[in-house]
Design a protein that fits this description.
heterodimer, A: 118 residues, mainly beta, 4-stranded antiparallel sheet, B: 4-stranded antiparallel sheet, globular
């Protein structure tokens, strides 16, 4: 049973960089899946941030592309998110999720709340 | 980029009612459409993929239909445990956009 677990600081200062990691357990990150990040501001809807394949190929939300970097560490079976120049608008619950090739997000992490504040 | 528009944004229905939520894509996406259920304070859960295929373990009162640009999620008989916000999502190609959500409440 594949499980995903997000980790990282819960508080980030404005203009700083948000960094999160998603650890994959119960399966290999090198399997036939893309791996995504999704966020949800308090009281609002879901926003897709971007995705990565184990080869390192990435796709990003155009609205965030200039600030986002997603990377994969196959040796640690995990992938990571970096979001730079954060503002209060980046305050959200951040989820990682698995997307089998040509399919929907079938497994999600529990989510981690990140607050941008000084 | 393709936009996903859900309607209504919220609805109130009685237990046992048939509930229908629609999702419209601004361009055709074939059947690369998923529906998720998110209960308050919980993680989104995949209900339906490929527009009409029920994810394993999802009650049969949920069903999906549509192709191209117009899609529907139907709950045949609303149950108290179905109180949640429902999201559609396109996944044919990036960006993998979500709809704005439909909040379902009990009348």
């Amino acid at each position: 049973q594949v499980q995903l677990q997000e980790s990282g600081p819960g508080l980030v200062k404005p203009s700083g960089t948000l960094s999160l990691t998603c650890a994959v357990s119960g399966g290999s990150i090198s399997s036939s899946n893309w791996w995504s990040w999704v966020r949800q501001p308090p009281g609002k809807g879901l926003e897709w941030i971007g995705e990565i394949y184990h080869s390192g190929t990435t796709n990003y939300n155009p609205s965030l592309k200039s600030r986002v970097t997603i990377s994969v560490d196959k040796s640690k079976n995990q992938f990571s998110l970096k979001l730079s120049s954060v503002t209060a608008a980046d305050t959200a619950v951040y989820y990682c999720a698995r997307e089998p090739v040509n399919n929907a997000f079938d497994i999600w992490g529990q989510g981690t709340m990140v607050t941008v504040s000084s | 980029d393709i936009q996903m528009t859900q309607s209504p944004s919220s609805l109130s229905a009685s237990v046992g009612d048939r509930v229908t939520i629609t999702c419209r894509a601004s361009q055709g996406i074939s059947n690369y459409l998923a529906w998720y259920q998110q209960k308050p304070g919980k993680v989104p859960k995949l209900l339906i993929y490929a527009a009409s295929t029920l994810q394993s373990g999802v009650p049969s009162r949920f069903s999906g239909s549509g192709s191209g640009t117009d899609f529907t999620l139907t709950i045949s008989s609303l149950q108290p445990e179905d109180i949640a916000t429902y999201y559609c999502q396109k996944y044919n190609s990036a960006p993998l956009t979500f709809g704005g959500g439909t909040k379902v409440e009990i009348k």
